[in-house]
Automatic annotation (TrEMBL), chain A:
The lineage of its organism: Bacteria, Bacillati, Actinomycetota, Actinomycetes, Micrococcales. It comes from the Bacteria. It holds the Pfam family ABC_tran. GO terms for molecular function: ATP binding. This is Sugar ABC transporter ATP-binding protein. Residues 267-276 have a biased composition (Low complexity). PROSITE patterns: ABC_TRANSPORTER_2. Keywords: ATP-binding, Nucleotide-binding. It comes from Phycicoccus sonneratiae. InterPro entries: AAA+_ATPase, ABC_carbohydrate_import_ATPase, ABC_transporter-like_ATP-bd, P-loop_NTPase.
Automatic annotation (TrEMBL), chain B:
It comes from the Bacteria. The keyword Zinc does not apply. This is Xylose transport system permease protein XylH. It is found in: Cell membrane. Part of the binding-protein-dependent transport system for D-xylose. Probably responsible for the translocation of the substrate across the membrane.
């Protein structure tokens, strides 16, 4: 409804953003999961969405993918204001999502899952062409899946992740949202996914990537959008910002467990890797 | 050559293309809990051996003709149950709905002199509305289908009693189509042989078409020889059945009608987007929703199809009895229909099952009932034994499910 943008660093963007959120608010009962969220994604841009647990990242993903309807605020897609009433509407617009829990049907095979809801020739399923496309997609992702005719239940976590990502690529989406895309992946598959994200950017897609892994974020993201307690807490150019600054925005202050730890360690060594999530975990564990 | 195929390029795949390899793969599937129709076929063989040894009439042509006619009505109801079980729901009111719609047809047709076609159409329409109501109760009000259909069970039983009135029974005229269709119309022998040949021919043609398309798309395909062997085996089996039943009255048109419905629903479940959606909703409803499937519509369609088929089964049962009365659709009809689907291998937990399970399960239940009747045992034994068979079937389903989970299968 209103453009309450204050911290967005993208106001000077040359073209209209592909996807643009203004003042998006979502409450669950008394909990304000999202308050006045602004977010812009341009064509060929990778936006990393970061924040602590409970910051509202996954809720925002669900709003964008039509799983939850926002209580207030506007979503514009390609310059037009749109309603994302249900998942089908999001898919029709060209917003594809890879959910954190992957949202796969374990009883269906890989082909069935890839084409779920978008089957070819619904009156007489075209299994042959769907299977061929499945192989092409999976090879594009260098997927290590032996056969596409086994139920998803037989696949490992990483293989399922690959299937979920492959599914989002079907039907030529314009925006792809990846919720923790590398969380379950091995070293090689993580690199494949990061390569894939770069390929998607080259193809002019908008990518929203949620990640806790600052290395991944800094490797591929163009901008970093920080959420904290359901609010915008800063937008940074991924190439010019230090990990410490992002961490500070995520945790909410320059006085936090991470900086306190660094101050304690100061003088001993120039530990620059304070941003590793593992560091915070250690601190909390004490 | 086979290593170049798109779906055979992974070196970890075992290439089970030889007959021995296929047999090994099948054995592996069974060990891991992917039983398919195996338990029910084993069960049928056991039932046949036991009853045949107790009473040699059991496997006679005449008795099998009867057995098949007895199966058809409950089988059609059970077919509807398969649909709701696939989405992980249940309809406990199929018996009352079948009895109620049979009463509607009988009252409109006999007491009000309607055309029978019109009466049937109206009854089927009412049943479809009933199914949609269950669907709405689930999707709009979040009423578990278990409870909604339990309420329906009572309500439609009451309505059935109300419209049958004081007499409590309406007899259908013996020369009406409904009764002749269900009682005395049999497929002429020559046509039975032709139909028995058409089925494998159709299977061969469809299989060959799929195979050649897969080969053109550089996918592995079933060899022509395997297709021919399968078709010939089916041909021999069906022609034998046709010959064996033709020694007596033959194959009832009602049975053909039931099998045709099974084939149609099987196509719907395995080859259409609707069927894929049913399985998806039964497997993981949230995943189905997020992939853009109209989950509400799928639930509605499953319940509507279920009630529609329940009504159709009820009308066939009324035709077979030549009457609709207070006991139509009551007693064990409900549980037989549900038990048949489960015994046939459709999972109670949703997402797994096939239209053929209704056919196989109904034959098991009808065989038990028929065999016990031949032994002059009253219905008390029948209830106990059917109950035990159902318990075994559910136990097998649960165990197989656990085994599949531990072997990493759906």
């Amino acid at each position: 409804m209103t453009t309450t943008a204050s911290t967005t660093g993208n106001d000077t963007a040359t073209s209209t953003p592909l996807l643009s959120l203004r003042g998006v608010t979502k409450t669950f009962g008394a909990v304000n999961a999202l308050t006045d969220i602004d977010l812009d994604v341009a064509r060929g841009e990778v936006v990393a969405l970061v924040g602590d647990n409970g910051a509202g990242k996954s809720t925002l993903v669900k709003v964008l993918s039509g799983v939850h309807a926002p209580d207030a605020g506007t979503i514009s897609f390609e310059g037009r204001e749109v309603q994302v009433a249900d998942p089908a509407a999001a898919i029709d617009l060209g917003i594809a999502t890879v959910f954190q829990d992957l949202a796969l049907c374990e009883n269906l095979d890989v082909v069935g899952n890839l084409f779920l809801g978008q089957e070819r020739n619904r009156a007489r399923l075209d299994e042959v062409s769907m299977e061929v496309t499945s192989w092409e997609l999976l090879q594009q992702l260098s997927a290590k899946i032996p056969t596409v005719r086994i139920p998803i239940a037989s696949l490992s976590g990483g293989q399922r992740q690959t299937v979920a990502i492959a599914r989002s690529l079907l039907g030529d989406p314009k925006v792809i949202i990846l919720d923790e895309p590398t969380a379950a992946l091995g070293v090689a598959q993580t690199a494949e996914v990061l390569d894939l994200i770069e390929r998607l950017r080259q193809r002019g897609l908008g990518v929203i990537m949620i990640s806790h892994n600052m290395e991944d974020v800094r490797a591929v993201a163009d901008r970093v959008v920080v959420l904290r307690l359901g609010r915008n807490n800063g937008v940074f150019d991924a190439h010019g910002v230090s990990t410490e600054t992002i961490i500070a925005a995520i945790t909410g202050a320059s006085d936090n467990v991470v900086t306190r730890r660094r101050e304690r360690l100061d003088g001993a060594a120039g530990e620059a890797a304070a941003g590793r999530p593992a560091t915070t975990d250690e601190e909390v564990a004490r | 050559m086979s290593t170049l195929q798109l779906d055979r390029s992974d070196e970890r795949l075992s290439h089970d293309l030889t007959p021995a390899g296929r047999a090994r793969a099948a054995l592996r599937n069974i060990r891991s809990g992917d039983l398919g129709p195996l338990p029910v076929i084993v069960g049928l063989v056991i039932i046949a051996v036991i009853f045949q040894s107790l009473n040699p009439v059991f496997l006679s042509s005449g008795n099998l003709v009867n057995l098949m006619l007895d199966s058809a009505a409950v089988g059609v109801i059970s077919l509807g149950i398969v649909c709701v079980l696939l989405v992980g729901e249940i309809d406990l009111s199929v018996g009352s709905v079948s009895g109620f719609t049979a009463a509607v047809v009988a009252v409109l047709f006999v007491r009000h002199d309607w055309n029978w076609v019109l009466a049937v159409v109206v009854a089927l329409g009412i049943a479809t509305l009933i199914g949609l109501t269950y669907g709405l109760a689930l999707t709009r009000f979040g009423m578990p289908s278990f409870v909604a259909s339990l309420a329906g069970l009572l309500a439609f039983l009451g309505l059935q009693l109300a419209i049958l009135g004081d007499q409590g029974s309406v007899n259908l005229p013996f020369d009406s189509f409904l009764v002749t269709f269900a009682q005395v119309s049999f497929v002429p022998p020559w046509l039975a042989y032709v139909l028995a040949a058409l089925a494998p021919a159709g299977m061969l043609a469809a299989g060959y078409e799929t195979s050649s398309r897969r080969r053109r798309a550089n996918l592995s395909a079933t060899s022509v020889r395997v297709l021919v062997v399968r078709a010939v085996a089916l041909l021999v089996g069906l022609e034998f059945v046709a010959w064996y039943l033709n020694r007596e009255r033959g194959i009832g048109w009602m049975v053909v009608f039931f099998v045709a419905l099974v084939v149609i629903l099987n196509y719907g479940i395995t080859r259409t987007g609707w069927g894929r959606s049913l399985l998806a909703v039964g497997g993981n409803v949230e995943a189905a929703r997020r992939s853009g499937i109209g989950v509400r519509r799928i639930y509605l369609s499953a319940f509507a199809v279920c009630s529609f088929l329940a009504a159709l089964g009820g009308i066939l049962a009324a035709g077979r009895l030549a009457s609709a009365n207070l006991s139509s659709g009551t007693g064990d009809v409900n549980l037989n229909a549900i038990a048949a689907a489960v015994i046939g291998g459709t999972s109670l937990f949703g997402g797994r099952g096939s239209a053929w399970s209704a056919l196989l399960g109904t034959v098991v239940i009808a065989a038990i009932a028929n065999g016990l009747t031949l032994l002059n045992l009253d219905s008390s034994y029948r209830f106990v034994i059917t109950g035990l068979v159902l318990a075994v079937a559910v136990a097998i389903d649960s165990l197989a499910r656990r085994s599949r989970a531990s072997h990493g299968r759906a």
